[in-house]
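Notes on consecutive records. When two proteins share a document, each keeps its own sequence and its own token line. Never mix them. Below: protein one.
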Amino acid sequence: MKLSDLAVFGGTPRFREPLHVGRPHQVNRDALFRRLNTMFDRQWLTNDGPYVEEFERSLAQRLEVAHCLVTCNATAGLEILLKACALTGEIIVPSFTFAATAHAVQWSGLTPVFCDIDRRTHNIDPRDVEKQVTQRTSAILATHLWGRACDVEALEAIAGRHDLYLFFDSAQAFGCSHHGRPIGGFGDAEAFSFHATKPVTTFEGGAVTTDDHDLADKVALMRSFGFADYDEVVSVGTNAKMSEVGAAMGLTSLEAFAAVVNVNCRHLAQYTRDLQGLPGVTLIEFEAKETPNYQFVVAEIDAESTGITRDLLQRVLWAEQVLARRYFYPGCHRMSPYVRPDGQPVRTLPVTDDLASKVLCLPTGTALGSDDVAGVCEIVRYAVEHGHDITARAGRHG
């Protein structure tokens, strides 16, 4: 391969069709259509139908929690959870997370206070959490990033010392574990996502899990307009229900979950082998004693070692139809809704800023084959081994 062979410099793209970080996984369509036919026969399309109840029971059993309440999406689930606890003031959240984590706080009339992360785990740093606690703090909302659990025990200790609620955004952590226990029953409550590209999908959906019976009752009321019965409204609520169609898809997708995880695991193992020893490229690892879902292949790109920045490497990959993503750039604390009037962040988060400039998520999932992964690795390896030359040429050509 020569520099001129790269699509970014006019060559032919390596792939004819785009390779995405995540695409919807295939399910057993016959099983799904059987469920849909039954749904139509029942003439029950929404409002806590049989599939919703079955899906909730299945999830609660798998996650080993007392209550699972499915919602139309994960963001709505978070917002209802915050409302159900009648929170005020400030909530401490990581900046290195999907924007919806912070948006749910702001949308609920609360103030997100952004916290830095642990450099090794990419999760919220309990030491910085403690520094941000004030009299206005009412809760901690932490994200289990990449499906790797937060330091749950340290966060529980902080929440206990300061009498704070503790919630977890577990959108990426379905099927994952912490100390051998399924993620889902930690803190006061957790929120999951069943978005279209998740290992378990309801097309679009989410869930709130908790062992708190009173909290579960409040969430159940609030997701359905506050109705306790046909003609009895006992609280203010919204419409965040999951439809029967979504739950039918969820049950069918749940049946395929193990196969999806196996594919993701194989892809990560191949990426690890093919990129082994490549200077400046580090793939995050999972603890052998835990159960991951391998939803993401996450690389850190060190420009000093590679001679090519993460952003230029992404540009090279995109030109080849490899749609690698800069998760979670630039960090919520630098997004327009949360900066000061002068455009600067409210506080400096050095670890978040550093990691946000290095993380690149590579394609995985059931839509990819081993040849696709090999092709992506070949491009990455060539780009890194010729990083200085690509950087110089890209500079000359703008």
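Protein two starts on the next line and is unrelated to protein one.
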Amino acid sequence: MARVVIEHLTKIFKAPKGEEVWAVRDVSLVIEDRELVVLVGPSGCGKSTLLRMIAGLEDITRGRILLDGQVVNDVPPKDRDIAMVFQNYALYPHMTVYENLAFGLKLRKFLPPEIKQRINAAASLLGLAPCLDRLPKALSGGQRQRVAVGRALVRQPKVFLFDEPLSNLDAPMRVQMRAELSRLHDRLGATMIYVTHDQVEALTLGDRVAVMKEGVIQQVANPLALYQKPANLFVAGFIGSPPMNFFKGILVRQSDRLSFCTQNDLHDSSARGFTVPLSDEQAARLERFVDHPVILGMRPEHLVPQAAATPEQNSITATVEVVEPMGSETHLHFVTEAQSFVARVESDFPADCGQPVSVRLNMAQAHFFDPDTEQALA
């Protein structure tokens, strides 16, 4: 396998009128040997362009890509020892599964016994042994995707690249294929770079996850750290389903305690805002931001509705607007005079639309962000 180093990589496209379109901006990233790194972000964030530059399918405007210490900027794709699995399966419809798997090896002049040995090993690993004599039209979507993965696998490359390979599958098959890809990585110990717009895929598959926005990597971390300690507002809002709730306000000192006040609560006592005190640890950390606007972020599971609408300390009085039963849990959408937010509760929590509820904030899990820079406040 291999270690991939990306140094200050930039890709600029020319638009029809000659203006520059920055697809990737000064990206630096290291993918360690045998690591699975996921690039995640919304459509148009540059993640697929970055993957295609690693594969050699896009020219590099600036920066370097190193594979095992060797700069490969000018190395043709076929000589980079990299295999790529695309969003569409790109199988030859007139060839059997065996012939599809063998095609790339024949082009590279492998001998028939070696081709057969590699195909049998890949078919056994991917559960394709009963399908080797079938045409693609006789396969399910999941089986076709496994053939696409197998075509990369038989090459035994240094690096595997996956460009949204599960996008064409239905929801149950996506879950199954996610698990299969995770097991495949564990068995092979391969270096893999995986692109997706689905944050669930990113969090469940990646050893580390790189979140991208507008061609820039916003944060790189393991899935748990990414969820618990987002670096900025974008990461906090993008990672997590439902996404993090945000409340605009200001830090003020009241009765020798540092508190967060929503802006409407601070300026209009008749409005249904709220004020919540900070813990001593939070107060010490945020002392220098007293009297400054901040944004309070709360995950839906850290907003705890009470069965009765009696206000408690660290609580918001809100009205249930939408009830979304999800089976194992329920998502409650609340609205106040100032804003709306979502809480995650147990499936049997008693709630009806239009019902007033007191929602307690678990301030031990609070996140604070600078509204100007959008960075997390340390």
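For the record: The first strand starts at residue 4 and ends at 14.
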